[in-house]
Amino acid sequence: MSSLARPVLILATGLTALVTLVPSALPASASQGGSAGVTALRTQHLRSALGIDDTTPDLTWQPAGRGRNVVQSAYRVQAATSRAKLERGHPDLWDSGKVRSAEPHAVYAGRAVGSRDRVHWRVQLWSGTRVSEWSDIAVFETGLTRAQDWSAQWITHDAWRLSEHELQPVVVTLPRTTARHVRLDVTKLGPPLDGAWRLQLGEIEVRDSAAPDVNHAQGAAVTASETETVRKIWEPALAVDGLTNSALDRAAGYASPKHTGPDVSSSPVTLTLDLKAAKSFDQVLLYPRADVLTDDGRVPHFPVDYTVSTSDTAEGPWTRAAEVTGQPAPKPFLPSGLPLFTKDFTLPKGTRSARLYMAGLGVHEARINGEPVGDAVLEPANTDFRDRVQYATYDVTERLRRGGNTLAVALGNGISNVVSTADRYRKLYGNISDPKLVAQLEITLDDGTVRRITSGTDWRTTLGPTTSSNWYGGEDHDARREIPGWDEPGRDHSAWPSAVALGRPGSAAEPAVLSARETEPVRVMETLKGTEVPGAEGSRVFDLGRNIAGWPEITVTAPAGTTVRILPAESLKDGHAFQSISNVGAPFLKTERG
């Protein structure tokens, strides 16, 4: 294998990082020859080392020259607080002197640097008796290297404090009775999802209000008049498995097949529980499906009209213990959209320099005056978010203006807040952290004064047009919920509620350490145009020619409320995107009717 790797762009399915392999340094064993030179200066192996935490970073370079091979035999590194000082030959931070080494690497060992310091450095090489000119000047800049540098607070939207919310069941009160069997007969189905009616329940509990900690239904035998089974996700037995919140567990509960309308009184959907012994109780608790909402923000597929009956035997006779008509949909566990945040501020003068330090969980997209703050996407990188979260530093000098400005952030669930979407592909689920952000914008004005804009309760927040987001299961966007100009100056945000402050980074309330991003971020590397190929009726199929890691972009003109679904796949079947477990992992459905 050659010691020089060709640049390779790796594209794969799934939301994985795009990786570029760059040529390695020439090996020390290469023969001498040519004129020495220096290229590809890097700090911490980064092309742009902005906002790093390491105050003694790795400095690397590549020997180069007019000859075919150049071998480094020694180097000299100089560092200064400004480009001008280096150019005048006054390295006020560090001069390593001549260091005999064939390795194109040094560790900064100059005068100590702290937070927000900017270091200019250059390299000179020896190749035998030949001496190179000084390299071009490279720069690295430290970020907020100490916890006390952060005056911003983690903030969130109150509706997204899921870790403090509990899913609320509907409690059906019965006359106190003693029985072995409990039957639920549903004659009218609740709000439909995607135009289909069905019954879905996350859990059924049977309790005695005198001893509310005991659930007699857990582990009961369940018989359903009809069922649509997805193994380990939707099964009658999963309605009594003790897992009440389908948004946080793989097992969702019970699901009936689809119906064409809400009225099923001619053939009720029935669930019968065998408690395996006679129990005394006066309550039946019905938990809704929690992981999805209808377009208008309601819980789908919850029963509207139903009865609860009891019996000593499976054959009956049955005694009607409660009858419910017009049951309102329960309070949703999830908010209707993902959160947006804004901070409006005014600058009295022009800007000399500005840095935005921020992190947002699960993923964030930040804008200033309607423009992205950088080219990175899907930030931050994955860490153990309970212990450590990576923050990024952005140079936003050119984004700011004299007068009114708006800093805006949209949050997604990412990998830290994974809702267990029962109808979509999942590799993992669970809530490590509620969606939240911390942001600190530091502005040096033309007169040298410093202005800090920090996240706190003076920020405004609302729920945006992205209604569902899952790392593997895809994303839903409702264009009817879009707020024109929400991220630009001049928009009135006064009616939006205030953000909820959670605590400063590193505090008892928010113990996770903030550390700087010191790897290249995920970026858009290429845009591919698909070629339309024949597809099934009602679908349009586009072939990109290869597997990718990315997302589609389309332009649609259609009436408001039109649903457009985009399905990625590695192959086609009968003209449709073929999403099987072996490629993108869509679930198989098994439908049964009794």
Write a structural description.
This protein is about 0% helix and about 40% strand. The protein is mainly β and about 600 residues long. Strands 4, 6, 7, 8, 10, 11 and 12 form a seven-stranded mixed beta sheet that branches. Strands 14, 15, 16, 18, 19, 20 and 21 form a seven-stranded antiparallel beta sheet that branches. A five-stranded antiparallel beta sheet has the order 25-24-28-22-33, with no helix packed on it. The longest helix is centred in the N-terminal third of the chain and has 5 residues, at about 85. The model is unreliable at about 1-35 and about 585-594 (pLDDT under 50).
Silhouette: elongated
Total number of helices? 1
Average pLDDT score: 90
Distance between the termini: 64 Å
Would you count the extended β strands for me?
Answer: 43
β-strand amount: 35-45%
Quick one: biggest sheet? 7 strands, mixed
Low-confidence stretches: 1-34, 587-594
Q: How is this fold's topology laid out?
A:
Blueprint: E1 8-10, E2 19-21, E3 37-43, E4 49-52, E5 58-64, E6 74-80, H1 83-87, E7 94-95, E8 99-100, E9 105-107, E10 118-127, E11 130-131, E12 138-142, E13 154-156, E14 170-188, E15 200-207, E16 221-224, E17 226-229, E18 254-255, E19 269-288, E20 305-311, E21 319-324, E22 339-347, E23 351-361, E24 363-368, E25 371-372, E26 376-377, E27 388-395, E28 403-412, E29 417-418, E30 430-431, E31 436-445, E32 450-454, E33 460-463, E34 466-470, E35 474-477, E36 500-503, E37 513-516, E38 522-523, E39 531-533, E40 541-543, E41 572-573, E42 576-577, E43 590-593
